[in-house]
Amino acid sequence: MNNHVGTVGIIIPMYNARQTILRAVQSVIDQTYPDWHIYLVNDKSTDDSLAFVREHCQDARITILDNDVNMGAAETRNVGLRAATEEIIAFLDSDDEWHKDKLALQTAAIAAGDDFVISHYHYKTKSADHDITWSKPYLQQDSFVKKQYRVCFSSVCFRRPPQGIFFQRKGHEDFLFLYELFTRYKQVRVIEKILVNYYELGDSLSRNKNKAAKWHLELLRIIYKNNPLKVYYYYIWYMVNGVLFTLKHR
Predict the structure, then answer these.
(1) Residue 146: pLDDT above 70?
(2) Cys-Cys crosslink for 115: which of 54, 59, 159, 178, Cβ 3.0 to 4.6 Å?
(3) Mean predicted confidence (pLDDT) in 3-10
(4) CA-to-CA dists, residue 49 to 16, 96, 175, 225, angstroms
(5) pTM higher than 0.90 for the full model?
(6) How confident is the model at residue 205, as a pLDDT?
(7) Do 105 and 191 contact (CB within 8 A), yes or no?
(8) Where is pLDDT greater, at 102 or 200?
(9) How many helices (H) and strands (E) does the chain have?
(10) Is 170 helix (H, G, I), strand (E, B) or coil?
């Protein structure tokens, strides 16, 4: 099968990531699918991350961008999206890494007709070390909103919709971005193989459970603004599946 869909634009936001950024970039360089271009966006790091990547990331397929002010993860990804000219886009967080066949398998799925693709992933924190899998080849929007499967953002690869799609500056902006992709494509193809190592930092904002729950409720109110019953229906699913995920992967 011809899995060549052209160059894949890869957006990597970076903030004070000196300890992990080269691991992330090297995992792209090691891909068996060689047609890619990285847009590495420095979000006004206060350490020497920018100088570090300028010294060590000399590959011509890497464009380094530098925000004038700290903009946060959502707007930093938007900077990368606006700079990228490619039709196929993938995201990689600066503290995560890809397995070498990640792009090859996902571009094959896109070449076969899927416009939105994710994969299984390995989840690692200071206290957890698990493979996160889904039992079906596709994840439907309803299951996503219920959080029956937690999508790893570093596993996302998609064909840009004709009208474009960007991040909104809100808590859990990743979830809202994915919801918009589901709205356009209805479902996501799940590559049933571990293709990403996802490292969750102990000081990540998303680890603050109370704040995360508040953010998620606000997003559901945005999505289902005319239907409060749906808001609380999906919020209960979110809470239940959050507890189950924590119990299973603690």
Answers:
(1) yes
(2) 159
(3) 91
(4) 6, 16, 27, 41
(5) yes
(6) 43
(7) yes
(8) 102
(9) 8, 10
(10) coil
Distance of CA 110 to the CA centre of its chain: 17
CA dihedral 220, 12, 182, 142 (to 10 degrees): -50
Are 109 and 191 in contact by the 8 Å Cβ rule? The answer is: yes
Residues 201 and 106 sit within 8 Å (Cβ to Cβ) = no
Structure tokens at 43: 């979000």
Reported as a single tens digit per residue, the pLDDT across 50-105 is 999 999 999 999 999 999 999 999 999 999 999 999 999 999 999 999 999 999 99
The candidate with the shortest Cα–Cα distance to 238, out of 224, 54, 95, is: 224
Structure tokens at 66: 């530098």
Question: What token pair was written down for 42?
Answer: 């420095």
Length of the chain: 250
List all residues 6 or more positions away from 121 whose beta carbon is below 8 Å from its beta carbon. Answer: 131, 132, 152, 154, 155, 194, 195, 196, 197, 198
**88-119 per-residue burial string, b: 16 or more CB within 10 A, e: under 16:** bbbbbbbbbbbbebbbebbbbbbeeebbbbbb
pLDDT computed for residue 202 by the predictor = 60
